[in-house]
Every structure is written in structure tokens, then in C-alpha cells.
Write a structure and sequence with these properties.
Layout (H helix, E strand, L loop, with lengths): L2 E5 L3 H12 L3 E6 L10 E4 L1 H9 L3 H7 L5 E6 L5 E6 L1 H8 L4 E4 H14 L3 E4 L7 E2 L4 E3 L2 E3 L1 E4 L6 H7 L5 E13 L12 E6 L2 E8 L4 E9 L9 E3 L2 H7 L5 H8 L5 E7 L7 E2 L2 E3 L14 H18 L2 H31 L4 H12 L1 H12 L10
The chain binds flavin-adenine dinucleotide.
């Protein structure tokens, strides 16, 4: 059994810690923040991620706190005119054997944390994991020593910077406003029980229900270039938010009038890294391959990574396990990164001739849309890790 150090207790780090602890490994998760808390926002987990959650024994807990959207719907941001609709809830379960689930981020984090602790993983808060040191037998970081180190420390990973040199992520010119609203703060039915994308020129908004149907999550992405890299996350101004989206269709106006708090993120990207591994150290999740949110796959890819890496460590020795993990995951993660980037154009230029045609074809031939999604949602790493 290995002793594994993990830098970062985000979704990727906690999932890896849980999977490793359940397989009998010794796990120390080092998290820089003193209090583990997630932003008040939602997260969509597609069937490929839910297979991992089910195998880790978390499906029923997550189903209890989540919500399954009925359809994936695309509407015009200003008029509400329908552009595209695809059955989601029944289709996902029938086709992939796992649900498509909307969750509050804090619920997912808390479930992972409690289960990882119960499985024997140790979580150390307020520990900055940087400046690791490795030799042929061990790796050290902060005051900890282990056989392997996993850098699950997000898009601004210190572990990756030490492995491959500092490389600032690139600002995409897009920012995301995120938050939740109590469902009873707006008239019943204002936001339908779907995963809805409202598309407009230079912006899009995603709405869906959470925690049964008691909360509504929104993510509003706009193109804005007056943004400084240091401000990649901040409290947003609600009045500014409402003013920015004042042209939105009526249901959104009603929703936004009930918003009390909103958070702002700059969306950053970086080219695919050729390697995620250096000796006894490997990266996963956003540290390895930051994912723009236009396919809702960043956390899903971190979860898939975590499962495959834990399986590799259980079946192969030290650095060999890490290399096998990288070989199994690199092509898929890079492809989903590319697909996510490409969706930005579809959402933010919905009136271009090409994008109108794409939406029409997808609506007339749902099999085309399903085939594209199947390449992402249809992968079950718990059955075939590719190691
Ligand atoms: C607007 C938006 C919407 C999104 N929606 C979805 C969605 O619907 N579905 C989906 O699958 N994905 C979504 N994503 C992507 C998803 O949130 C990320 O891809 C995912 O959280 C990455 O997880 P991670 O564990 O790799 O990194 P993170 O969540 O960034 O976690 C990294 C952790 O490491 C800690 N850390 C950092 N440095 C150190 C250090 N030196 N020492 C110790 N600890 C450290 C941090 O404090 C943090 O806890 C969205 C992203 C955005 C921006």
C-alpha cells in the first residue's frame, strides 16, 4: 500500500483521497484554506462522473440532495424563443445507466469530505503545499513525507509551476457571475425544471434547480476585457449584475430581481500541458487541464482522473503508476478541453449563420447531438480505466 500526499481538497483532491483510502492506502490531503467551504453555486454532474460517485458509494446521498433536470434546453436570451431541446433525465438514465444530476457545490464537497474521513483519509487545513522535494524513494512537501504526491491544487497550481515552470493562465475575456436564489422567492414555475442555456450575442446564462426544487442556480457569462488576473474571484455588485443583463427575457428578469448575492469569476485557460507527471508527482483536475465551463465537464474530468489515478496506484508501482495514469487520461481530457472551448462560440454567437444551422441540425436530428454527447457522457472509467 502506498502513502499518498494530495495538495488541494477541491472536488478532484477529495475524490482521489476517498478512492485511495477506500482501497486501503494511507492518505494525507493538504489544503491551504483554513476552513473548507464551497462557493454558493451549483454544479452539473453528467453520467460519466456519476458512475464514479456510484462506485464510491455516494449515489443515493447525492440523489437525495440533488435534482435531475428533465430536458436540456437552449432559448434566446432576449425573447425566450426556443432554439433546441433534448430529453435529459429519462434519456441519460436509460442510455448511460447513471443520472445527470444538479448539485449544490457545498453538498458535493461535504459528502466527499465526510466519506473520505470515514474511509481513513486525513485532511489537514491551513497547509500550503508548495516546494516539494523528491528522490528515488519518497517525496516531501510542507512537513509531510510520502511515496507519491498528487497536485490537485487547481488552475493556479504551485505543484505544476514547480514541475514545469511558472506559466500564468490566459484570461479568456469572459467573466462568470454565479449565485443561487431560493425557489420560493420567485413565482412557482418561473424557472422550469430543465438545464437551460439562454444564448445571446457575447453572453449566455445557465439556469437549473438544486436541492430538490428548493433553490435555483444561475451562471451568467459575459465577454468583458477590463479584468485583472489578480481579481480572478470576487464578490459581485448585484445592481451592476442586474444592469448588465437588463435585456434578458422576462423569466430571467424575475429571477434576477430576487438575487441577493452574486459572485464573479474571471474565466482563465491554458494550452494543454504535454505532461502531467514528474517522477513521484502527478497532477489532476484543473491543475492538469483547466476546463472552461461551456460543457460543464471540469469537475467531471477531475472526478474521472481521480478514479483512474487511484486505480493505477493500487495496481502498479510508484512512478510507473503515474505514467500509466497520464497515458490513460491525457487524450480524453485534452479533447474535452477543446470541446469546451468550441462551445463558447456556439453560445456567444448564436445568430451567426453557421451556429443557427448547427442548432437547427441538432434539433432536426437529435441523434447528431446525442452522438456528440455520447463521446463524453458514455465513458465509464470505473469499467475501463484504459491503464
Ligand atoms: C462558472 C463555472 C461553472 C462551472 N460549472 C461546472 C459544472 O457544472 N460541472 C463541472 O463538472 N464543472 C464545472 N466547472 C468546473 C469545475 O468547477 C472545476 O473544473 C473543478 O472545481 C476543478 O476541481 P479541482 O479539484 O481540480 O480544483 P479546485 O476546485 O480549484 O480545487 C483546488 C483546491 O486546492 C487548494 N489549493 C490551491 N493551492 C494550494 C496549495 N499550494 N496548497 C494546498 N492547497 C491548495 C484550493 O484552495 C482548492 O481547495 C465550472 C467552473 C466555473 C468557473
Amino acid at each position: 500500500m502506498a502513502h499518498v500526499l494530495i495538495a488541494g481538497a477541491g472536488i478532484g483532491g477529495l475524490t482521489a483521497g476517498l478512492a485511495l483510502a477506500q482501497s486501503g492506502h494511507q492518505v494525507d490531503i493538504l489544503e491551504r484554506t483554513k476552513v473548507l467551504s464551497e462557493v454558493g453555486a451549483g454544479l452539473q454532474l453528467s453520467p460519466n462522473a456519476m458512475h464514479v460517485m456510484a462506485t464510491l458509494g455516494l449515489k443515493s446521498t447525492l440523489m437525495d440532495v440533488g435534482f435531475q433536470p428533465e430536458n436540456a434546453v437552449v432559448l434566446d436570451y432576449q425573447t425566450g424563443e426556443p432554439r433546441f431541446e433534448l430529453p435529459l433525465r429519462d434519456r441519460m438514465q436509460a442510455k448511460y445507466g447513471a443520472p445527470y444530476l444538479n448539485l449544490h457545490r457545498a453538498d458535493l464537497q461535504q459528502t466527499l469530505l465526510e466519506t473520505a474521513l470515514a474511509a481513513g483519509a486525513q485532511v489537514h487545513l491551513g497547509v500550503e503545499a508548495a516546494n516539494f522535494d523528491q528522490n528515488t524513494n519518497e517525496v516531501r512537501v510542507a512537513d509531510y513525507q510520502g511515496d507519491l504526491l498528487i497536485g490537485a491544487d487547481g488552475i493556479r497550481s504551485s505543484i505544476a509551476a514547480q514541475m514545469f515552470g511558472p506559466q500564468d493562465p490566459r484570461f479568456t475575456g469572459q467573466i462568470a457571475w454565479r449565485g443561487t436564489v431560493a425557489a420560493d422567492a420567485v413565482p412557482h414555475g418561473t424557472i422550469k425544471p430543465n438545464a437551460t442555456v439562454w444564448v445571446g450575442d457575447g453572453l449566455h446564462i445557465v439556469t437549473y434547480l438544486l436541492r430538490g426544487m428548493s433553490q435555483i442556480s444561475f451562471v451568467a457569462v459575459e465577454e468583458r476585457y477590463d479584468w485583472r488576473a489578480e481579481d480572478w474571484e470576487q464578490q459581485g455588485d448585484v445592481a451592476q449584475f442586474r444592469a448588465r443583463f437588463a435585456q434578458a427575457a422576462e423569466p430571467l428578469q424575475t429571477l434576477f430581481s430576487a438575487v441577493e448575492n452574486v459572485h464573479l469569476w474571471g474565466l482563465f485557460d491554458r494550452p494543454a500541458r504535454p505532461s502531467w507527471v514528474d517522477g513521484r508527482v502527478a497532477l489532476l483536475g484543473d491543475a492538469a487541464h483547466p476546463m472552461l465551463p461551456f460543457m460543464a465537464q471540469g469537475a467531471a474530468m477531475a472526478i474521472e482522473d481521480a478514479w483512474v489515478l487511484a486505480d493505477a496506484i493500487s495496481r502498479f508501482d510508484g512512478p510507473d503508476a503515474l505514467k500509466r495514469y497520464q497515458n490513460a487520461r491525457h487524450t480524453r481530457a485534452t479533447r474535452v478541453q477543446d470541446m469546451s472551448r468550441a462551445n463558447a462560440d456556439l453560445y456567444h454567437r448564436p445568430n451567426s449563420v453557421l451556429n443557427r444551422a448547427k442548432m437547427k441540425i441538432a434539433q432536426l436530428l437529435p441523434s447528431v447531438a446525442h452522438a456528440r454527447l455520447a463521446s463524453v457522457y458514455g465513458v465509464k472509467v470505473t469499467r475501463e480505466t484504459g491503464l
